[in-house]
Amino acid sequence: xxxxxxxxxxxxxxxxxxxxxxxxxxxxxxxxxxxxxxxxxxxxxxxxxxxxxxxxxxxxxxxxxxxxxxxxxxxxxxxxxxxxxxxxxxxxxxxxxxxxxxxxxxxxxxxxxxxxxxxxxxxxxxxxxxxxxxxxxxxxxxxxxxxxxxxxxxxxxxxxxxxxxxxxxxxxxxxxxxxxxxxxxxxxxxxxxxxxxxxxxxxxxxxxxxxxxxxxxxxxxxxxxxxxxxxxxxxxxxxxxxxxxxxxxxxxxxxxxxxxxxxxxxxxxxxxxxxxxxxxxxxx
Amino acid sequence: xxxxxxxxxxxxxxxxxxxxxxxxxxxxxxxxxxxxxxxxxxxxxxxxxxxxxxxxxxxxxxxxxxxxxxxxxxxxxxxxxxxxxxxxxxxxxxxxxxxxxxxxxxxxxxxxxxxxxxxxxxxxxxxxxxxxxxxxxxxxxxxxxxxxxxxxxxxxxxxxxxxxxxxxxxxxxxxxxxxxxxxxxxxxxxxxxxxxxxxxxxxxxxxxxxxxxxxxxxxxxxxxxxxxxxxxxxxxxxxxxxxxxxxxxxxxxxxxxxxxxxxxxxxxxxxxxxxxxxxxxxxx
Lengths: 284, 284
Fold this sequence. Notes:
The structure is a homodimer of 284-residue chains. Chain A is of the alpha/beta class and 284 residues long. Chain A has helices at 15-29, 64-73, 79-90, 107-116, 169-172, 174-182, 203-218, 270-276, and strands at residues 2-7, 33-38, 93-99, 128-129, 132-133, 146-152, 187-188, 192-194. In chain A, helix 1 packs across helix 7 (203-218). The longest helix of chain A has 16 residues, at 203-218. The first copy, chain A, is globular, with a radius of gyration of 20 Å. The model of chain A has no long low-confidence stretch (mean pLDDT 94).
């Protein structure tokens, strides 16, 4: 497989960075091709702004979505943005490796999505409106790829459990797993979280962490993915609201995962979905 | 009241920026003192890195939490960080005004929290461990302050409703409302969201939006806040897991809000909490 490792930690000697190094070596040992986007080392520009759109006319008002779609369609994106898109297209799997800061991604990683996930590519694919809402959530440009989150967390595991005070980790990560990754079609593996990570990790603890990471890397291509419900396969009504008979007792974000009794849909390819919508692929 | 407006949009002529301007004028008309942190205009540094810690020794390994706590305690923080902290201390209320990008804050605003919310100030207050876990979630340095989120969203409202495909907006914002704001003690008002915001908003629609915003500004000091459960008042067990008899049927993040039947705790002041824990205030 081709694996892109997205890494976000400012200290190359940190635990999080060591886990990234371990993952890269382990993947290469297993015969995978690996590329790394080490966002801090690359001095990745975190903020989406007018400089992302070199063709934007001086003084013209910036509409971020419109500018993003135009820059993508006319191949006039910022060079660092298109370079990242090429890595994503190349990759069969993405590994996102980061410390959980304030219950989410470090800003530099959030800014990777803000800038790289262009309109017409990661979103605004297919026709929006009417009884459907475009091609997204399970279908999209990045269909067929997989992603694994590896995150280091200072807090203790029970505090991130289903009834823990911080909120369930799966729910805290939902804007990333479902909102950023599943949206353009990427299948998301259950996250690998390392809790109670302090300033010092003993060699034995580090070895145990690496073993857990190794096991997840070994099954990167085969492990069952989080069964998020695809948008366009009958689970949601025309307003994109989950039908009342599905996950009827769920009151939170877990309702957007299929339950064992639900039928598993066979997802169409992107080109099939576009044809069904009457959009020629070239129109994108 | 003193009101700090945190604003994050790259285009000064955008709808989001116009709403910020409207809010500032409305608040000033009502006699409030207003300060604005316009993050894009300030060229706010979004990424936490070693440059945030001017006293950090060359070549020394960076432990972000430790470095943050030391810089705060020794008054050696980056100047832009301490300037923002002073504004927050000055403020009775915070307004966060931003477009929802990929189901969360734009990176520049996430980076404001990553950098400004220092250890020993916004977190790591009080003693962690044993049967308690520090002073946070309802108690903390910023107790008594309120925050209102104002967010512009391209998608339609039903898609962000309790069973909408994007996830319920309250849940998507939980890492910010509960994780960033309630954590150091800030009371959070229900968010004001403007849905279906496209490139063009008619004058009539804009007027209606301003009226909704005005109504929320008029009640900034008085409106009922989101009743998140405080951590240290009997709702959570020693592992910080919600007791089974509270919100027993909830499966998602809404369980961390008190229900009508639950008693409303009287929150201690920060100094009382520190004394109860046996921490002298100077130790912080």
